Amino acid sequence: MTATAQETQDILLIRAPGTITGYKGVRKNSSTTHPFKSEAWSKERRAYVSLGVWSTAEEAALAYAHHLGPDASVTKAAHVNAKEEARKACAAEMRNSSEAAFAVESQRCTKTGYTGVSRTKSRSKPYRAALPGGRTTRQYLGSFASAEEAALARATALSMGMASIPTERFSLLSREEQNMSAAEVEQLAESEGLQLIKATTKSGFKNVVRHNLKEGRVTFEAFIQCGVSKKLGRYATAQHAALAIARYCRGDSAAA
Question: Could you give the CA distance from residue 196 to residue 239 in angstroms, rounded to a whole number?
Fold first, then answer.
């Protein structure tokens, strides 16, 4: 039975516009005889499980649809179609918007076709939008399902006056404070009436990222998320980074 005939019997092939294979749950395979493979997420294993390898993308998509079942395949196909319609509406809005409100810089020599839009490895939202800036100071606006949506987000941010990002580095801690121990930093924060917000992360603090460097060295990077991500520098301990965040939120960034 062909994939097209099977679709008429309540099993829908779930399409995925913009992907290499064109179908949900289908990926390219290294084999020359069976160049497509189907896989599905397993909640029990918390990983993707293989559903087999196939000669065509349609066969792989059919295996994925059978794995979901008739009802689930119809529901998921409707969800994908709704998202695609929303994407098309977004693209139409982009084309119809005035240049003042939507100043997209189209640069066809890029892989995505838009300036400031890059491709990531994410399956659900593979496009990322960024504002102008250096490699270490670039601010990202988030991830999106299509390049057009990412370009729209970037253009909206630019139209709101966010056209330039300062590239100079600054620190919310003095050199003397950066030489303090972690315990001394916690005491300093308490004396200033600031709370170092803890979290169940590798660093132990919210919005603090741990970076493992060569020779066993470790640094902690502080950032804030206010529509866009803003980096506040790297520090010797997580407590230093958390203090920088607390001071920034208090308003010390104006002095920096």
Answer: 7
pLDDT at 1 over 70: no
- Give the residue with greater pLDDT, 75 vs 52: 52
* Residue 39, token pair as written in the block: 């896989």
Portion of the chain with pLDDT greater than 70, in percent: 73
Q: Is the pLDDT of residue 94 over 60?
A: no
Output the six-digit token pair for 61. Answer: 């998509």
Q: Give residue 36's pLDDT band: very low, low, confident or very high (50, 70, 90).
A: very high
The token pair at 44 is 């029990």
Helix (H) or strand (E) holding 144: strand 140-144
**pLDDT higher than 60, residue 109:** no
Cα end-to-end span (Å), the chain: 68
Determine which helix (DSSP H) or strand (DSSP E) holds 176, and give its type and residue range: helix 175-178
Give DSSP secondary structure letters for 191-247.
HTT----B-SSSSSBTTEEEEE-GGG-EEEEEEEEESEEEEEEEESSHHHHHHHHHH
DSSP string of 83-113, one letter each residue:
HHHHHHHHHHHHHHS-TTT----B-TTSSSS
d(CA 178, CA 172): 10
- Predicted confidence band of residue 228 (pLDDT cuts 50, 70, 90): low
Q: Which two tokens mark 175?
A: 């050199």
Q: 110-143 burial, b for 16+ CB within 10 Å, e for fewer? A: eebebbbbbeeeeeeebbbbbbbeeeeebbbbbb
Under 8 Å between Cβ of 238 and 210: yes
CA-wise closest residue to 50 among 72, 25, 30: 25
